[in-house]
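Lecture 7 notes: from sequence to structure.

We start with a single chain of 757 residues. Read the sequence below before looking at the structure.
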Amino acid sequence: MRSTIVGRGACRRFDLIRGRGKLRGLLPAALLATLASAGASSAQDGPEKNASLPPVQRAQMALDQMTRQEKLSLVHGVIAAPWGDKPKPEGSIGSAGYVPGVPRLGIPALQETDAELGVANPGVVRTGDTATAMPCNLALASTWNPELARRQGQSVGAEARAKGFNVLLGGTANLIRDPRGGRNFEYFSEDPLLTGIMAGGMIEGVQSRRIISTIKHFALNAQETDRVVLNARIDPAATRESDLLAFEIAIERGRPGSVMCAYNQVNGSYSCENPWLLDEVLKTDWSYPYFVMSDWGAVHTTVRSAVAGLDQESGEQLDTENFFEVPLSEAIADGRVPKARLDDMARRVLTSIFAHGLADKTEAFPPVDFAASERTALAIAREGTVLLRNQGLLPLPADTRKLVVIGAHADVGVPSGGGSSQVIPRGGIAAKEQVDENRAMVFDPGSPLEAIRLQFPHAQVDFDDGSSPARAAEAAVKADAVILFVDQYMTESADAQSLDLPGGQDRLVEAVARANPRTAIVLETGGPVLMPWLEQTGAVLEAWYPGQKGGEAIAEILSGAANPSGRLPVSFPVSEDQLPHPKIQGDPNGAPSGPVGRGGQYGAMFTATYDEGAAVGYKWFFEREEEPLFPFGFGLSYTSFALSKLAVHVSGSAVTAKAIVRNSGQRAGAATPQFYLTGPKAANIPLRLVGWDRIDLIPGEQRQVAVSIDPRLLATFDEHARRWRIQSGVYGLSAGFDSQHRELTAKFDLQPASLPP
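Now the structure, written as tokens:
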């Protein structure tokens, strides 16, 4: 599978009309009038029947026929579930959100559901409705395989569409800035290139099913602690080179139909009323043509939000008032919000509806192929499991006679992350483990224990639940090998307060590994954890939250039926003292962790300062010359690979890197050679991932890999000029199999250049 990075040309801008009006994100009125006039001959059929016309033209035709009240109805939505004393909104399927359509013009209602890990069913609002539980996004990112991201999007999109949804609230592109972040399992990585490409692939797959995908949370939603009162303070240029670059790449590649703004503030202004984020960066610099929706309960004002670029208020019951209903109508009537801005808001919603086929009458989609969904889930779990340590223990011999499996409910299923992305899996919930009064960890079906028994049919495979370290150690003593599962619950609305395994599991690992050093640890976590027991173990696998086919994938890797090929999308620190923020910023017991709704009070803001700027993850370790426990990009295999003949070709700002990769081992496997850039002192580029390739090789086979480097990755951002600038000088390119071990190096010269934002 080739993961080559292309230049900006073909995917840089949308194939829609662009323009800048008084409010920079507005399309010019004269041009829109021309479009409407051009389509007048077929207007009598209604815009919904003119599928051959450009989406922006169809949107203008519809807009010209709408009353102000109809326009207003498109720019605010409700929770699609019973709320307070009110029933589920009429016409809604039941899920996260609902925005009524305009039936007389063929404009469908927006039926909105979470998320890309599977179709959610919050509060079981749809009785008996289940969905395929996919591996978490950290597992998907560990594949470094954009085609698998696209396949996952297709599968989840198909299931959502079959249930009647036309908006998927998924396509998460936030960077993992803190390994304790509660939603890290929903995020892809600490690197903007890897995040952007994987998120873009996911979005593209979803939208291939005629459903709008929503990229989120724009921007800097890097932690859950105090998220609704958090002001993220960061240098704007550094943001462009990190968090915003991830969004920019994902938007270019996936072309999502909507963008969701975040709860937090960025440099003193709420994300959903932040003119720099919404108007200057997104709609002007990136020419984004579709609509911006708020997160549920993330709107705080009417006029500031509307003028800054928010197009749709979502889940309005969670805001302190319905800002985009009566207050917006009044603000337009008295001139505080221009009438043209309401037209632009509604037009953007309509343009996305038409661009993604929501209003078009098409043949019914075929029934969902659940077998295909499960094949995709299994492939991701296989390719996304990362072998971190192997002292010759794995793969386990086929003639193994006695195995003991311990811990983490491995007898029934695998854990999943909590919050709005939670899926009720097909086959039903395997188990629930109460975490606190209001939260429980849900286990997806697919018992690793039973899958291991299938892989080792001649072995005695016993199970211990791990609740007693002494009993588990006693069970481990006489086993040929021990498979010890440990887990970590991560969820929206709460961060991990440390990277220690919760519930005394470190003591369990130490006791079992002391009793039997032939112990393989299977981590089922929502992010990095500390491993004080690492040197006592025979092997360590990071399986993340592997979805309902995860048990099968883990068993295949343990037996050698599958060769591990995952690579870390996030660095594992030795200790929390190595992090930019040794303690999570904010007060976990302070402000509410979610929207407060009618009459609620948020309390005082606090500032989270990201002085590390663009030096996120492996870049932070590199700049400080510190060695992590496991570096970004790292992962072992049951075979070995070698790189040679690194070469760089330069033509202006177009740079291509090539290398030869060879399978030097005895088994077929997948290699992921990675290319990293360092710049001259004036460029301020200590280390950056600039490309990779994932390639399957049989023993002795070698192939050349090549990546075209995105010119932005050769540059730094000049915020004053709003341009990317490539500095002249000598640049270094290195190649290896992770960010810490880059054995091949080459140098090349670049001339100064300036690129658009």
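The two ends are 30 Å apart (CA to CA). Keep this in mind for problem set 3.
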